[in-house]
């Protein structure tokens, strides 16, 4: 071996061969010189000891650590074996004391490459350990957060081990430098350096043992993580089953809720029907009671009304005689109406007297039959069946008596008002203020888009006798054109809703009617309107008239065979709230409408005032009730 080659660590077989060569060289050197042999022994024994320390066998077959990944991926196997580390003595061997004839043999492969390979393997193991620790840290953080503290402690231990390992490596490098320096300068300190090297190796072995312990702890943590993942999977299964049960119970609860709601709606409808039936029965009972109690009183009232009517007729005749020159046209109309009404009243009185006598006889017979009915139930039932038609006749006659009473009072009032107004002015200037007031209030109550508003304005113009200029100012005629007198067209539609003023406008002349009396105009209107309604009824169509209380009274005097329906509010308070809620009424007009409504409600309470009363508390219910009653098989307006 040439000088200058550094000694290196080799396997154990090569170290033994080197020992033999060193011993042989040692024996040869003793023959030359004693001093040189001592130097040679010192130079050869130190490497030999170094080789012995470096060539100690090291168990590299350690069990690898199997770490399962957190997401089901299998981690790489960590080989925990660490190769032996030895000192790389790269310093030159001192040859000053060696004789020239001495041949020193050394193996460069065993003396120089073994420490470097071991150091590289240690570095690779360190890098692989760092990578695996980082992967394990990520997987442990994803799987279970509660093991963060343990993993941090484990990581701290690994960092400590790495720091110790780095310290050992730095110490190892320092030892190598010191060994090289000692070999080059002081051979006597080789033994001390060998001891330090052995100490460093022992520290490395301790670190490797500690690293193995850390790997074992890592394996135990990985098994715990697997168990925790299995527990979490079981908990998820239990959670899914609980969610299924919850959804099923919620569906059952919804079904039960729907069934209860349907049952509640059915019971509510039955309750409404029972309530309505009870209300109808109460009304019928009250009507029957009032009819039976007031039958005798109504007969006396009828006689008094007839006497008062005769007195009124006499007074009207007396006043007519005093104003004969001014009211010729009105007197003729009044005479015709009076003769017709007197004839009707006489006939009605005669028929009512005979009917009342028949009813009295029937009542006496019914009372006798009632006493006989206590003895035998079967005979009583038969007698009750016979009495029922008579009770119906009594009810009809009572309704007829009520109609006659209202007609007589209304006619007397109208005649008194007409004569009073005729006394105050000329015949052509007399206008019924009550009629004009009703028309004007109805005109103000209607919406601007209602066509009846224009018709009411036409009627007011006809009653007041407006000229062309006044009609243009009111919007009834275009500027620059003259209004041609003529009758308004009678509507031919099968379904219409005119009011009382609206009906009057359809047959009222604009200018030509100013010289006619109001009685003649009203009589002419009723005749023409009745004819129009009859024509519609003959076509098997329904004619609907939207009229007020006075219009109802006038239509009842005709032979139209009409049916009367009264659309009533729930109460006057509710009606006032509705009118105020619209915001279209002044306080004065609101009070007038409420007064009119109060009068109409009082009139509706009278017997035989209307055939049907619909309470407008629920719009849909009132509409259905009105529609069913109006249609009624097409009987409305048909002659019987």
UniProtKB/TrEMBL annotation:
Domain GRIP positions: 426-477
Ranges annotated as biased composition (Basic residues): 14-24
Cellular localization per UniProt: Golgi apparatus
Entry annotated with the keyword Cytoplasm: no
Keywords carried by this UniProt record: Coiled coil, Golgi apparatus
Guanylate kinase-like domain location: 458-631
Name of the featured protein: GRIP domain-containing protein
Organism in which the protein naturally occurs: Penicillium desertorum
């Amino acid at each position: 071996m040439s000088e200058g080659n550094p000694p290196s660590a080799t396997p154990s077989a090569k170290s033994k061969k080197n020992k033999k060569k060193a011993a042989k060289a040692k024996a040869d050197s003793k023959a030359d010189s004693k001093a040189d042999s001592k130097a040679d022994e010192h130079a050869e024994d130190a490497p030999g000891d170094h080789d012995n320390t470096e060539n100690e066998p090291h168990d590299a077959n350690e069990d690898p650590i199997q770490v399962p990944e957190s997401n089901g991926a299998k981690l790489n196997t960590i080989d925990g074996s660490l190769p032996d580390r030895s000192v790389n003595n790269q310093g030159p061997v001192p040859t000053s004391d060696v004789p020239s004839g001495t041949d020193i043999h050394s193996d460069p492969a065993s003396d120089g490459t073994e420490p470097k390979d071991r150091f590289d393997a240690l570095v690779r193991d360190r890098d692989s350990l760092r990578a695996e620790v980082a992967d394990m840290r990520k997987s442990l953080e994803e799987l279970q957060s509660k093991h963060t503290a343990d993993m941090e402690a484990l990581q701290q231990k690994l960092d400590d081990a790495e720091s110790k390992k780095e310290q050992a490596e730095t110490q190892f490098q320092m030892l190598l430098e010191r060994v090289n320096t000692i070999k080059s300068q002081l051979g006597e300190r080789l033994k001390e350096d060998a001891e330090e090297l052995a100490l460093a190796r022992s520290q490395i072995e301790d670190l490797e043992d500690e690293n193995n312990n850390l790997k074992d702890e890592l394996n135990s943590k990985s098994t715990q993580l697997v168990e925790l993942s299995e527990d979490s999977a079981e908990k998820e299964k239990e959670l899914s089953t609980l969610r299924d049960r919850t959804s099923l119970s919620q569906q059952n609860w919804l079904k039960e809720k729907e069934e209860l709601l349907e049952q509640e709606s059915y019971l509510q409808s039955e309750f409404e029907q029972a309530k309505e039936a009870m209300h109808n029965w109460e009304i019928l009972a009250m009507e029957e009671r009032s009819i039976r109690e007031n039958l005798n009183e109504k007969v006396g009232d009828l006689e008094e009304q007839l006497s008062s009517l005769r007195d009124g007729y006499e007074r009207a005749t007396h006043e007519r005689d005093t104003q004969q020159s001014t009211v010729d046209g009105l007197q003729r109309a009044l005479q015709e109406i009076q003769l017709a009404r007197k004839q009707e009243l006489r006939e009605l009185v005669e028929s009512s007297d005979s009917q009342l006598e028949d009813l009295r006889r029937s009542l006496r017979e019914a009372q006798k039959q009632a006493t006989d009915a206590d003895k035998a139930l079967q005979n009583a039932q038969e007698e009750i069946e016979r009495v029922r038609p008579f009770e119906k006749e009594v009810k009809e006659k009572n309704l007829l008596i009520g109609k006659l009473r209202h007609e007589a009072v209304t006619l007397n009032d109208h005649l008194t008002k007409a004569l009073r107004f005729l006394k105050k002015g000329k015949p052509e200037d007399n206008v019924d203020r009550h009629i004009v007031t009703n028309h004007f209030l109805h005109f103000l109550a209607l919406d601007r888009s209602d066509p009846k508003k224009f018709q009411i304005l036409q009627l007011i113009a006809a009653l007041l006798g407006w000229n062309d200029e006044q009609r243009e100012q009111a919007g009834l005629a275009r500027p620059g054109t003259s209004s041609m007198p003529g009758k308004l067209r009678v509507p031919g539609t099968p379904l219409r809703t005119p009011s009382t003023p609206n009906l009057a406008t359809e047959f009222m002349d604009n200018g030509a009617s100013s010289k006619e009396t109001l009685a003649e105009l009203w009589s002419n209107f009723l005749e023409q309107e009745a004819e129009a309604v009859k024509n519609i009824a003959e076509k098997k169509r329904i004619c609907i008239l939207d009229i007020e209380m006075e219009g109802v009274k006038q239509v009842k005097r005709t032979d139209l065979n009409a049916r009367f329906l009264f659309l009533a509010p729930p109460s006057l308070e509710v009606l006032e709230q509705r009118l105020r809620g619209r915001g279209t009424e002044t306080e004065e007009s609101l009070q007038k409408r409420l007064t009119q409504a109060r009068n109409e409600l009082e009139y509706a309470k009278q017997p035989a005032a209307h055939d049907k009363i619909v309470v407008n508390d629920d719009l849909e219910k009132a509409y259905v009730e009105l529609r069913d009653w109006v249609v009624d098989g097409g009987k409305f307006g048909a002659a019987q």
